Amino acid sequence: MAEFIKLFNENPNPKQIKQVVEVLRRGGLVIYPTDTVYGLGCDITNIKALERIARIKGVKLEKSNFSFICHDLSDLSDYIKQIDTATFKILKRALPGPYTFILPGAKSLPHPFKKRKTVGIRIPDNNITLEIVRQLGNPLVSTSIRDEDEILEYTTDPELILEKWDNLVDLVIDGGYGDNEASTVIDLSLEPPEIVRQGKGSIEIF
């Protein structure tokens, strides 16, 4: 059975954040709030945890399109190739925020992602998630938790999420009701950039 922790976005309890980080370091899977929908994530450095998420999602890890949740832009250099000033300005303007940016992958990507030409990067505007990543010291690998119900698409109630995911994950964070609209996905590896999915983030800022 999964642990269930309530955290407040305005002021996440450091002791509880530490508890979440310990679960992640042990290879646990965590469901957590973002500035869009709830996400399922694990420590990017833990191969067994990565394989568990891939199994749950029914994909091969090497071919998965999971995104990386980073704490801030200084984390990016380990995972993406050097970017030009114009691209950096877009990231700086939009993040933290409800966007996933597809960027050229670095050669130093963790082993399962070595063959990737691009990676999806997220820096959500959510203090709970940002604190977890900051204390963990490296990104989370993340995927949104979709609902089978095509009308709902995303479950927003943390207690319903716990009910459904109780036996699949190690910890569920109740960060309040989630959104039911996913992030806007923008491919910055292309020239000109391409909107892959219009979601919560406005494209007016570009």
Description:
The chain has 206 residues and is α/β, with parallel strands linked by helices. It is built from five helices and ten strands; from the N terminus they run E-H-E-E-H-E-H-E-E-H-E-H-E-E-E. It has helices at residues 14-25, 47-57, 85-94, 127-136, 158-165, and strands spanning 3-6, 30-32, 39-43, 67-69, 99-104, 118-122, 140-144, 171-174, 184-187, 194-197. Strands 1-8-2-3-7-4-6-5-9-10 form a ten-stranded mixed beta sheet, with helices on both faces.
SSE topology sketch:
Layout: E1 3-6, H1 14-25, E2 30-32, E3 39-43, H2 47-57, E4 67-69, H3 85-94, E5 99-104, E6 118-122, H4 127-136, E7 140-144, H5 158-165, E8 171-174, E9 184-187, E10 194-197
Parallel strand pairs: 1-8, 2-8, 4-6, 5-9
Antiparallel strand pairs: 2-3, 3-7, 4-7, 5-6, 9-10
Helix pairs in contact: 1-4
Apparent shape: globular
Main sheet specs: 10 strands, mixed
Compute the number of helices: 5
Structural class: alpha/beta
Q: Poorly predicted ranges (pLDDT <50, ≥5 residues)?
A: none
Whole-number average pLDDT?
A: 93
Structural features:
ten-stranded mixed β-sheet; 206 residues; 5 helices; alpha/beta; 10 strands
Quick overview of this protein structure:
With 206 residues, this protein is α/β, with parallel strands linked by helices. It contains 5 helices and 10 strands; from the N terminus they run E-H-E-E-H-E-H-E-E-H-E-H-E-E-E.
